Amino acid sequence: MVQCLQSLGYKARYITVKGHEVTEVWSPELSRWVMLDPLYELYISKEGTPLSVLEIHDMILRGEHDLEVHAKKDPGDLREYLSRYKKFAVWAKNDHVSSPINFLDIDRYKIYYLDDPTERMHVPAGSLYTLFSEDLYYNPLTR
């Protein structure tokens, strides 16, 4: 899905949420990153606005339960599905079809977002991480 969106001219990237990959795409119309889960044909919104992984993450940690899940395929238990967003990593490389990678080194391509510096002990050795959302969430059209 990432490379399909890229071929149409969109900025798109992989995000890992607890062993599950989703897609984020920059929506020029909304001026924001939007999460799409191609496995379940799913996106999540609040008050009609599609959300990014970071926004879902923050809302889950705050205990907000008024998220709107729009899915064509059943993701199973919604609480379990949403709990995946407590931890996530943004992929730094997003052209795996046109430029294949060694999937044995997959963690080298991820930047883990941490809420607290003590969480770094749970990041795979040699992986990158950040405590600053602005390192991962920016307008890609201005960089």
Query: Low-confidence parts, pLDDT < 50 over ≥5 residues?
Result: none
How many E-type strands? 9
Give the ordered list of helices and strands.
Answer: HEEEEEHEHEEE
**Overall pLDDT confidence:** 92
Strand order of the largest sheet: 3-2-1-7-8-9
C-alpha end-to-end distance: 23 Å
Helix content: 10-25%
Rounded to the nearest angstrom, the radius of gyration is 15 Å
Total of DSSP H or I helical runs spanning 4+ residues: 3
- Give the overall form: globular
Largest sheet: 6 strands, mixed
Give the count of structural domains: 1
Q: Kindly name the structural category.
A: alpha+beta
Task: Report strand %.
Answer: 25-35%
Features:
6-stranded mixed sheet, 3-stranded antiparallel sheet, 9 strands, about 30% strand, globular
Written description of the protein model:
The protein has 143 residues and is of the alpha+beta class. The chain has one domain (2-135). The chain is built from 3 helices and 9 strands. The chain has helices at residues 2-7, 53-61, 78-83; strands at 12-17, 20-27, 32-36, 42-46, 49-50, 68-71, 88-91, 110-113, 128-130. A 6-stranded mixed β-sheet has the order 3-2-1-7-8-9. It has a 3-stranded antiparallel β-sheet with strand order 5-4-6, with no helix packed on it. The longest helix is centred in the middle third of the chain and has 9 residues, at 53-61. The chain is globular and about 35 Å long. The two termini are 23 Å apart. The mean pLDDT is 92.
